[in-house]
Amino acid sequence: MCGIVGYIGKRDVVPILLDGLRRLEYRGYDSSGISALNKKQITTIKTVGKVKNLQHEINDTISSDQLSEFTVGIAHTRWATHGAPTEVNAHPHLDDSGKFAVVHNGIIENYVAIREQLNQKGHRFLSETDSEVIAHLIAECFDGDLAQAVAAALSKVEGTFGVAVIAVAEPSKMVVSRRGSPIVIGVGGREMLVASDVSALISYTKNVIYLHDNDLAVVTCDGVDLRSINNVPVSREIAKIDWDISAAEKGGYEHFMLKEIFEQPESLANAIRGRMDESIGTAILSGLRFTPKEMIEISRVTLAACGTSMHAGMVAEYFFEDLANLPASVEQAAEFRYRNPIIEPNTLVVAISQSGETADTLAAVREAKQKGAVVTGLCNVVGATIARETGRGIYLHAGPEIGVASTKAFTSQVAVMLMMALKLGRSRRLSVEDGISLVHEINKIPELIRATLAHSEEIKSIAEKYASAENFFYIGRGYLYPVALEGALKLKEISYIHAEGYHAAELKHGPIALLEEAVPVVALANDIAGKEKIIGNMQECCARKSPVIAVATEGDDSIDNHANDVIRVPASSKFTTPITTAVALQLFSYYVANKRGCEIDQPRNLAKSVTVE
Ligand code: M6R
Question: Choosing a second label site near 201 at 20 to 30 A (CA), which of 19, 159, 421, 522?
Answer without folding.
Answer: 159
